[in-house]
Structures are given as C-alpha cells and as structure tokens.
Amino acid sequence: MMIVMKQAASEEEIAAVIARVEGAGARAHVIRGEEITVIGAVGDREHIGRLGLDSDPGVDHVVPILKPYKLASSQVRKGERSVLEIGGAKIGGEHFAMIAGPCTVESRDQTLSTARLVRESGAQFFRGGAYKPRTSPYSFQGLGVEGLALLAQAKQETGLPIVTELMDVRDLEAVVEVADVIQVGARNMQNYTLLTEIGRSGCPALIKRGFSSTLEELLMAAEYVMKEGNENVILCERGIRTFETAYRFTLDLMAVPILKEQTHLPVVVDPSHAAGRRDLVLPLSLAAAAIGADGIIVEIHPEPDEAICDGPQALRNDDFPAYFDQVLKAAALAGKTVSADV
Ligand code: PEP
Ligand code: MN
Known about the structure:
Elements: E1 2-5, H1 11-23, E2 27-32, E3 37-42, H2 45-50, E4 59-63, E5 84-86, E6 89-91, E7 97-101, H3 108-120, E8 125-127, H4 145-158, E9 162-165, H5 172-178, E10 181-184, H6 192-201, E11 205-208, H7 215-226, E12 233-237, H8 255-262, E13 267-269, H9 271-275, H10 278-290, E14 295-301, E15 315-316, H11 320-333
Parallel strand pairs: 7-8, 7-14, 8-9, 9-10, 10-11, 11-12, 12-13, 13-14, 14-15
Antiparallel strand pairs: 1-3, 1-4, 2-3, 5-6
Bound molecules: phosphoenolpyruvate and manganese (II) ion.
C-alpha cells in the first residue's frame, strides 16, 4: 500500500501516519520526493486497509501496489527515477556511470595501474573481485582479505568508489570496510540470507541477474535488500541462458526498457560476462547504452592474456579510454551523460 501525502502535509501528520502503519504491524518506508512525501506501507494488506488511512489528516490518497515487489516498484516513485549518489558518483536518471576494472584483483601492480587508468579516463567506479564465484572449486578463488587491502589502496590513491563481490555473509564486515557498492553475483541472486544482511548493512548493492532468473525474480531480490531499509540498489543484466550455443550467454537487452517500466532503480549492463569474448564487448556496450542503460560494468586488464580469470573477455587497459568515449556517445543518444563529482 502506498500512502501519498498532500504537498502541504506537515511533519506531524507524516509522523502520525507512520505511527498508525507501524501500529498495525507493518513497516513504513518514507520516500521524500521533491514535492510530495510517499509512505510505503509493507505488511498485511488487510490490516493496513482496515486503518482507513485515506481520511487521515495530511493524506491525499492511498494506492494499492499490485506487484509482488513493492519498494522496488516504479509505482512508489510515481515515475521519478532513483538517482544514487555513491562516493562522488551519481547513477540513475540522466546520470550514466562506467564501472570498470579487472575480473579479479591479482596483484598490487595490476590493481593500481588499472585503477589509475580508470580514474584518468573519467570513469565513475572501480570494480575488482577479492572473492570469486568460480565454477570449478580448483580454480583461483580470489585473494580474499589480501585482495580487499589492494582495493582499499586503489580507493585511497584514486578516490574511486569500489564495487566488489560478497559471496558469504561471514565476509560481510571485511567487505563493507572497503566496498562502496557490494556486488551480488549472478549465482547468489537468490541467496536471501545474503541479500537480507546486505540490506541491513546499509551498503549500496549491485545485484546481477541470475542466468536463469526472470526479471520479476531479480526485482524480488532487490526487494529483499530494500525491505531492510537499504534503498541503494542497482540492477544488472549480465546475460541469461538460452538454447543458443553460439555464444556464452544471451545478453537480454530488452530487460533494460522493461525493468525501467517496472522499477525506479538504476539498471546497468555487463557485456563482458554475457559475451565471454573481447570483440563483442564494444558493440554490446553501445547497444546497451543506446537502449537506455544507466551504466556499464566492464572488465579490463593490463595484459588480458596473463589474466588469472576471464582474460578472453577483458578489454586491454590501453583500449579502455577510446572504448569509454564511444560508449558515452551511445549514452548521449539515450539522453545520458556522466555527472561531475557530487
Ligand atoms: C564478475 O562480475 O566477475 C562475475 C563473476 O559476474 P557474474 O556473477 O555475473 O557471473
Ligand atoms: Mn569476471
């Protein structure tokens, strides 16, 4: 249920509605827009309905939210898009963001040289995994805390906000120390304990679509984080499994406009993991930016042939500045630009 307050509603009236919602055993999420305040009441619909909030002082009207996801629904923002401000970067609305870095943090040199390049090129976020979800238990699993320390150095040197994956709640504390955005990998999209704990941590989250998950399931994953009071969620399309075998995954670009219809949250695209091949990364990125993605998350490496993981899909660091320029032109077609520091 969404309680839309009148433009002239006072703080006391807003507080009174919140108290009534919470008194009925529901959670009240207050969303303060530029002109009006909306209170999302999440809980037993019948209990909330019985309160008759329509006639409370300061209430304009009450709207039921019919989708199973509530806080993530575009309905709660009345068409307004969420713009997240994270560590000096903005993403969402007309603000496009480039998230770039290696698949995994391998060494001090590889991490810092790549982070410097990402900064100098004007990109908004540095990505790099310290905990890697590998298909084989015999593959490199990431440097763990040592990798987090390298990410902390990269952040300190460049000032770039860090996007890094959390796979296990036991590592939450250590990851939150360094991460500006916690990445939830495709394989963990439906790990509800993990999502709930990330929600509680208050750290922004980038949730990758599971490769056999529907968009509704992706939105329900976001809802798990948001339900804990953490509204800073970015969704990521990274390719899904289809019957096609000619490429690694099928990049579902239609997810972008459809998600935009259904949610106010920013939507980014990961062309690297979808393609698995470097030569497809630019064309897929251009298409994603032109169709209205709020950002791209891309893998780059100083020497892809030497990369410990995902080398064949990594762009060469040297090629990144020209790649980014082209992507920005495509983003401009969708009316988006990167923002200056906030
Ligand atoms: C990654 O970003 O390095 C990664 C493993 O992605 P995904 O979870 O989409 O496979
Ligand atoms: Mn990777």
